[in-house]
Amino acid sequence: MAVASDSFRLLAGELIKKTERLRDMLAVVGLIVMGKVAVDTSIAFLSAVRIFLLSKLRSLSNFKEKYGPWAIVTGATDGIGKEYARELARLGVNIILMSRSIEKLTRVAQEIEAEFHVETQVVQVDFSGGRSIFDKISEAIRGKEIGLLVNNVGVMYEMPMELCELSQDVIWQHVNINMGSLTMMCWLVLPQMLERRRGAIVNLSSSSSVGPLPYMNIYSASKSFEFIDLCGLLLASAVS
Ligand SMILES: NC(=O)c1ccc[n+]([C@@H]2O[C@H](COP(=O)([O-])OP(=O)(O)OC[C@H]3O[C@@H](n4cnc5c(N)ncnc54)[C@H](OP(=O)(O)O)[C@@H]3O)[C@@H](O)[C@H]2O)c1
Ligand SMILES: *[C@@H]1O[C@H](CO)[C@@H](O)[C@H](O)[C@H]1NC(C)=O
């Protein structure tokens, strides 16, 4: 009896020692994870302060001088693009609006001119048109000093769908509008910004770009094409 209870105690003692070691190891893992969470949260907090609070303190009065007299906004007649156009006009920047419907373009341009007393120009263009449309755009903006380019125009699925259920049109729209137009607009405008060493480009990405979105894979992939890091996304949302 005594022998059995002794060996049981020994076994229990060994087990407790083992679990203690395991516990210590888990504690170290826990500390590392907590450290990472603390660092990530602090960085996110500081960038939120920088973007949402400090940016408000910065004077925007010389915005036009800082970036340049004209801004291009693609998809400027509705939604986020229209608000970008309005907010930039509020800062005194002249606006080049680009989208498909000439009625909407004319109406929004008139609204902006009347409300903010800036110049506007409209360019009627369908960004799903592929390579051929950029000669027209290049011609339309010739001679204008572009300080800001807001790559806003974008398409999305009407509803979540599998790849083979999508029409060819929708697939090419994602390629041509979400990826092609953004890249070509940068290609057209960036040289003059680099030459003057001033200007800013905003790409409107989406939170769906951080990982593949099931049943919207082309959309999420096209949106991750649009930004190199999350700063781009934060910057875009901060300015809007
Ligand atoms: N809304 C959201 O919740 C959300 C979330 C994340 C990211 N985003 C991104 O933000 C951007 C703007 O989204 P939104 O919802 O504000 O768009 P929206 O309300 O649908 O506005 C689209 C604008 O683009 C123009 N447009 C549409 N197709 C065009 C084409 N093929 N060629 C030229 N212009 C075209 C439209 O005018 P016409 O019809 O006259 O051409 C309109 O001015 C997109 O890149 C989108 O992916 C939006
Ligand atoms: C915006 O898009 C252009 C063209 O694809 C790309 O070169 C640039 O890095 C993008 N900007 C950001 C902040 O991701």
Describe the structure.
The structure is a single chain. With 240 residues, this protein is of the alpha/beta class. The protein folds into two domains: 60 residues; 179 residues, Rossmann fold (3-Layer(aba) Sandwich). The chain has eight helices and five strands; from the N terminus they run H-H-E-H-E-H-E-H-E-H-E-H-H. The chain has a five-stranded parallel β-sheet with strand order 3-2-1-4-5, with helices on both faces. Helix 4 links the parallel strand 2 and strand 3. The C terminus is likely disordered. It binds NADP nicotinamide-adenine-dinucleotide phosphate (NAP) and 2-acetamido-2-deoxy-beta-D-glucopyranose. NADP nicotinamide-adenine-dinucleotide phosphate binds next to helix 3. It holds the Pfam family adh_short. It is found in: Mitochondrion. Its main location: mitochondrion.
